[in-house]
Amino acid sequence: MEEKFKELARKEGFDLISFLRPRDYMTAEFFKKWLESNFHGEMEYMARHLDAIQNIEKIFDGHGTIIVLAASYFTFSLKKFMNNPERALISKYAWGRDYHKVLKKKLKRVLRELDLHGKIYVDTGPILERELAYRAGFGWIGKNAMLINKNFGSYLFLSEVILKEKLETDEEQIQPDLCYNCTRCIDACPTGAIVEPRLINANLCIGYLTVEYKGVIPEELREKMGNWVFGCDICQEVCPYNQKIPATRIEDFKPREGTFAPLIGELLSLSEEEFEERFQGTPVRRSKYEGFMRNVIIAAGNSGNPEYIEKLKKLWEKGNDLWSPHIEWAIEKLK
Ligand code: B12
Ligand code: SF4
Ligand code: SF4
């Protein structure tokens, strides 16, 4: 059964698969301190997870096996667009079809094939996915907090299946930390969000500000966001372990037309219908039109291109309360 599962999952495009027995988390305390420092910002659902993370029976009771999986979504580097003031940057994880849906569908197919019934988690629920992947021997937790695999790098989605059956487990094989003296990610993070190795203050992370945070972006952070309009890949792009890695085998993760490095000028005149059409089925829809355009306005402000002022004024006429303070700021900067 175990080997058959691995074979089918590999065929679906998963690169790393391991079977673990549920046991207490070793980093529950680290997670609690992260919450106590308010590093979760407005992600209240993270605080609600604490109880189940400290009392794992709330999720795993009656379950004998956790299958941990990682799937690469790497396609190509964004480096050549990173200093291009005409381009807006969308994080690699959002270029293709939404990974939650893609991976769940694949795992359901594997379970069905083997007549197994399990609960599937992809980036959801009170699960410390990075710790599980670490215990599964997939890699180490880098100073940028990413789970990094020596061969596949860190552009990996993690997911889990929990089963009632007590299947034979793989041995927990802990991989050595290969960061050594490197600090490239910490040095490159524009907002100082990596407050210490492996510890991220989400309030400062562009991945949070552009996707999860719905309000007015603090003025002191706007310039630091550069041209990122959805997510941020800087601390991964600079990592030496992401320089020579194979591309994903999953077709759905390959970039869709218009999702990577679109022109800022084009995005500034995007209507809500065009936004829905262009990003339908991709993770970008999470920011919603309003949040996405707020990010585009900031990117325009950071572009140094006064030609955008006219388009910004047109957006101003729409009278959106969230956009207005950002438009004012952007126009002032471009004058
Ligand atoms: C909340 C969240 C965020 C928040 C906070 C991120 C953070 N670092 O805390 C925000 C919105 C900022 C975010 C951003 C991103 N995220 Co996110 N996020 C999550 C989520 C839902 C929960 C993470 C969490 O609990 N954070 C709290 C902190 C305390 O936990 P943690 O970061 O997981 O860190 C653990 C370990 O590092 C460990 N730890 C600390 N020291 C040590 C030492 C050792 C030896 C060990 C074993 C562990 C360890 O303790 C922590 C608790 O277990 C997970 C999915 C999940 N359920 O796990 C995805 C997840 C972590 N995110 C993911 C991704 C892809 C991203 C982005 C790259 C997206 C983007 N391009 O913008 C960025 C990366 C930012 C970064 N450098 O971390 C992937 C990471 C895959 C990987 N290879 O690691 C995950 C696993 C989702 C998935 N299913 O694939 N994310
Ligand atoms: S994702 Fe961007 S902002 Fe967040 S820690 Fe990494 S480099 Fe910093
Ligand atoms: S950039 Fe360097 S320090 Fe940061 S995660 Fe990669 S190897 Fe580790």
Please provide a written account of the structure.
The protein is an alpha+beta fold. The protein folds into 2 domains: 144 residues, NADH Oxidase, CATH 3.40.109; 122 residues, no CATH class. 37% of the residues lie in helices and 12% in strands. It contains 17 helices and 10 strands. The strands form 4 sheets. Strands 1-2-7-4 form a 4-stranded antiparallel β-sheet, sandwiched between helices. Helix 16 runs antiparallel to helix 17. The longest helix has 16 residues. It is globular and about 65 Å long. The termini are far apart. The model has no long low-confidence stretch (mean pLDDT 96). The site of one iron/sulfur cluster has 12 residues, from helix 9.
What tags apply to this protein structure?
single chain, 335 residues, 2 domains, four-stranded antiparallel beta sheet, two-stranded parallel ribbon, 17 helices, 37% helix, binds iron/sulfur cluster
Anisotropy-based shape: globular
What profile does the largest beta sheet have?
4 strands, antiparallel
**CATH topology of the largest domain, anyone?**
NADH Oxidase
* Rg estimate, integer Å: 21 Å
**Small-molecule components bound:** cobalamin, iron/sulfur cluster
> What portion of residues belong to β-strands?
5-15%
- Structural domain tally: 2
List the helices and strands in order.
HEHHHHEHEHEHEEEHEEHHEHHHHHH
Structural class: alpha+beta
Distance between termini? 65 Å
CATH class of the largest domain: Alpha Beta
The assigned CATH architecture of the largest domain is: 3-Layer(aba) Sandwich
Name the helicity range. Answer: 25-40%
